[in-house]
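Sequence design from tokenized structure. All designs in this work follow the same two-part layout: the structure record, then the generated sequence. An example of the structure record is given first.
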């Protein structure tokens, strides 16, 4: 969930985006600010992003050891973990429907506390995780039976090419400084015909339309805001084919949603949720519900055959008339 890109910028400096990460356009217009970060839209492709992006230091402060949504009690943590694993099983089932593949080698980037990997391993996948937080990595290593976890960023792991049948990005791509560079690296490590599954907040979602600038996904660590169009373009430009976009289902409970909104408060919504969950019986608060949330689920694949570079030959046209 937390992945940053290595850059040459000083760690304290906010990083200006000079050209759009998706289309390379350079005309952006200002939309609004969250805290003191400007949200802009690319005039050419419509991609929304923070500009400038927060500094490495600012992101490190956000991604402290307590970043992953948890609970103060062991029972609470267990409930959160069960919800995340239920969402993982839902994502795996949808991915299986798309690819037809039952199991194989799975890579999850930004694996957090490892709930997705644990669920995937239980279903027979051979799992590998990449996670920026060393604390989270240690925890994941303890939870997996055979799976591996790399601490750091994807590029640092230097995986050999064409290793994985499935790559999973669950609430990750919005955190990446340069999404296209990142997607191209994923494309490289996937086997020909391999599947990429992306879950990310979507500007097209009902919650984004309803909450507008108060949308809970507008936050400092979310550097890029995709919609269906811009994510499809980004995937196509990174070499992915057969893109299918669906509304993002998640498994949630009232308790989990309330905890999220208490952590990232939104006027009216947070007090309302706190109020109604107080009135509910415990069983109802903890019940798993499959709902369309703020995101989209996007499936795509790497071509079976690696396209050969097109050889362009310039044929000199000359006149043989003497
Ligand atoms: Zn653009």
């Amino acid at each position: 969930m937390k992945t940053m890109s290595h850059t040459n910028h000083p760690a304290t400096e906010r990083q200006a985006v000079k050209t759009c990460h998706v289309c390379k356009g350079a005309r952006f217009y200002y939309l609004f600010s969250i805290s003191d970060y400007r949200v802009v839209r690319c005039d050419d492709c419509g991609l929304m992003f923070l500009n400038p992006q927060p500094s490495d230091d600012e992101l490190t402060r956000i991604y402290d050891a307590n970043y992953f949504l948890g609970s103060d009690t062991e029972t609470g943590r267990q409930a959160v973990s069960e919800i995340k694993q239920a969402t993982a099983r839902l994502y795996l089932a949808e991915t299986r429907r798309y690819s037809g593949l039952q199991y194989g080698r799975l890579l999850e980037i930004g694996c957090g506390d490892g709930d997705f990997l644990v669920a995937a391993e239980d279903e027979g996948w051979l799992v590998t995780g990449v996670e920026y937080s060393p604390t989270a990595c240690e925890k994941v290593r303890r939870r997996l039976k055979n799976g591996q976890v790399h601490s750091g960023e994807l590029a640092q792991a230097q995986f050999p090419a064409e290793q994985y049948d499935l790559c999973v990005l669950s609430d990750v791509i919005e955190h990446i400084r340069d999404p296209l560079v990142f997607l191209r690296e994923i494309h490289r490590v996937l086997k020909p015909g391999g599947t990429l599954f992306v879950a990310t907040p979507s500007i097209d979602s009902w919650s984004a339309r309803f909450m507008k600038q108060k949308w809970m996904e507008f936050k400092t660590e979310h550097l890029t805001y995709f919609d269906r169009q811009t994510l499809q373009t980004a995937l196509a430009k990174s070499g992915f084919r057969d893109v299918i976009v669906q509304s993002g289902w998640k498994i949630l409970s009232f308790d989990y949603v309330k905890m999220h909104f208490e952590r990232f408060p939104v006027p009216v919504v947070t007090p309302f949720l706190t109020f109604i969950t107080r009135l509910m019986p415990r069983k109802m608060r903890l019940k798993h519900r499959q709902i369309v949330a703020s995101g989209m689920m996007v499936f795509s694949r790497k071509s079976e055959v690696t396209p050969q570079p097109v050889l362009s030959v310039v044929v000199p046209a000359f006149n043989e008339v003497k």
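DSSP finds eleven helices and eleven strands in the chain. We note this feature because it recurs in several other targets discussed in the main text.
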